[in-house]
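Budget justification note: compute hours in this period were largely spent on complex prediction jobs such as the one shown. Inputs:
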Amino acid sequence: MTPKFSILIVDDEFIVRDSLSKWFTQDGYKVGVAENAAQALKLMNEGPWDIIFIDIKMPGMDGLELQKRIKEIDPNAIIIIITAFASVDSAVQALKEGAYDYITKPVDPDYLSHLVKNALKQKKLTDENIKLREHVSELIMGEELIGESPQIKKVIELAKTVAPTNTTVMIRGESGTGKELVARLIHAHSPRRYFPFISVNCGAVPDTLLESELFGHEKGAFTDALYRRKGKFELADGGTIFLDEVGTISLKMQIQLLRVLETKQFTRIGGNEIITSDFRVICATNSDLEQAVKEGKFREDLYYRLNVFTIFIPPLRERRTDIPLIANYYLKKYAAMMHKPISEISPEAMDILIKYDWPGNVRELKNAIERAMVLAKPPMIRAQDLPIQITEEEPENETLEAVEKAHILKILNKTNWNITQSAKILGIDRVTLYNKIEKYNLKRNRVA
Amino acid sequence: MPLANSSKILIVPIHPVDFELVSTLVSPLSKIFNCEVLLDNTNHINLLSTYDSSRAQFNSTKIISILFEKFKNFNGKILGVISVDLFIPVLTYVFGEAQLKGKIAVVSTFRLSEITYGLPENKKLTAERLLKEAVHELGHNFGLLHCENYLCVMHSSTSVEEVDIKTSSFCDKCYEELSRQIFSEFNDHHNGK
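Corresponding output:
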């Protein structure tokens, strides 16, 4: 029979270890025994132990200290302190420091039996809770920010730094750069992660509807308001509200928004009840808010209220080294979704992807890979499958060196940086090619 | 039942237990374990070394050691039955104790009797409880662990109320395990282990 749970007994008295060990073995538990703290810490490697009984008074490291050390190794360990009547005070101290309970020797078998059952019930719930939280975190994260470039690493670092605070964050970047992904990343690393992440695309909702969308409405507040409806601010209670395209909000809504951000209180349209909601604001925009402030199209006070901590996401063309990583990420994703045995992108196709400027940024690249996946024939995506073409423009007013550099890079990429092959095409020897690579500081864009 | 044909159970009444009460065990134990059950009536065991004056109780683990020494040449299980209150050092009391997959078990009638709880004596009830605890401890001798089925005799009981709820029979799962363990003991015996 496989033991259902495991129990570790740490006590310097043989008789206690022996009796408890026999008692729990007959109950079907896997039992481990240690006569001192050092042995117990060694046995922690054979864990995890569901319940650990620790004698409070032991020679060398005492039970309280051992409890601390065990909690460092396994913070969820359930520890039950064994004490003699005289050391109940220390047991109480142990409880304050996170022990589950304590037993005084000798213990009533009925009490011990219930104590262990309850402790295991709690352990099961805790473990279940941890698993669920991990699962929730994965669900919240959804797609991840992909990239190894210093620019994107900086974005991730900033997001994780600001996440644990309650600070309002403004995310700026061109359309398709992944502003919502950064907002979700902040939420997922914040203490609010087990509460809702509510996303509102302010640019996609007409101004008249935005008010109802954000604040909710009471039944009969307007002609079509047949039922009471909660607004996004109310739904975001405890969590995060993400206001995308915040630069498109009308001046009238800006006033209302400012008030809510200041007080965290509002009323539903057509209602009198003041609703208080605890939410964190993350907003995003790709418009020039400073210019809008200058032109009087965006309230200055709201601008300062929102622009507390700003994260800029660079456009994809400024971090071209990430293109192969992102392209391969979506290649794998769509190949799995479409059940197509396509596992690579040809060097020519990758060359096009790297050179293209991607005005629609990651979103455009993602869509390009999806479309190419539909058209491509196994085993790879080729240049002709891509919905983009790079027009090789004749360089104007460029120096001979610049033309030479561009041509060498083109050939290197074409041959997947095969030096012998490239040198042959270029009509030079390998040493000369190496010298040119060094001279022009040419670097390979590695595909993950 | 293909059970303990090759084995024997010796019941050892330990003075001053009620001999008549102990003798009620012979027939049902023989049926349950399908083996020869003997009743020892020649013994006088000195329990002085097992007595703990600070607790006014007898150490069951020490009693098991005495029985083990006394019956080391007996080929079968030994069930000591006693009327005094038993304990193991870490617990306030036990109804009995057994060597898991071993030879010796001991049960006490002390906490099985209604008199202990200030109630009038009920010999029939005490006999029923004693049988359940005897089967339970012998079950441990045959390698059985506690069972979660509250009607099974191997269910762990820490109060007489729980003893009263369970039956003196093994559940299907424990019965199967018991058969397996006895078969393995039989093989070990014939292989000279």
